[in-house]
């Protein structure tokens, strides 16, 4: 199992998890949900007190990944399998991403 913090405008909003079977889950932190001034990170991931589950990487996060030759270069330089979407996401979205969301690997 691998986990990553999901930051929205540099504040930790929740946790994205890839389970051992390859499925994914995302859950907002309780304090994020309770605070009315905090927004949901995506229209497809509304701010609710529940865990979102998916067999695949959620489309919102998948769309943050590089494509084409950029993906090939990033994967080669970082020794990431091109099908490892979660690893690629943690590598490319930790410092600089389009929009307000960043992904940071959660150490065990």
Describe the structure.
- It comes from Belliella buryatensis.
- Keywords: Kinase, Transferase.
- This is Serine/threonine-protein kinase HipA.
- This protein has a 5-stranded antiparallel beta sheet with strand order 4-3-2-1-5.
- The chain has one domain.
- 26% of the residues lie in helices and 27% in strands.
- The protein is α+β, with helices and mostly antiparallel strands and 108 residues long.
- A hairpin with a 2-residue loop joins β1 (2-8) and β2.
How does the SSE layout of this entry go?
Elements: E1 2-8, E2 11-18, E3 24-28, H1 30-34, E4 51-54, H2 59-62, H3 68-78, H4 85-92, E5 101-105
Antiparallel strand pairs: 1-2, 1-5, 2-3, 3-4
Number of strands: 5
User: Sheet with the most strands?
Assistant: 5 strands, antiparallel
Order of helices and strands: EEEHEHHHE
* Overall average residue pLDDT: 93
Strand content: 25-35%
Tally of alpha and pi helices: 4
Binned, the helix content reads 25-40%
What Rg, in angstroms, do the CA atoms define? Answer: 14 Å
Overall spatial form: globular
Structural class: alpha+beta
> Would you identify the regions where 5 or more consecutive residues have pLDDT less than 50?
none
Number of domains: 1
Give the strand order, joined by hyphens, for the main sheet: 4-3-2-1-5
The N- to C-terminal Cα distance equals: 10 Å
GO molecular function: kinase activity
Keywords: Kinase, Transferase
Organism: Belliella buryatensis
Domain HipA N-terminal subdomain: 5-103
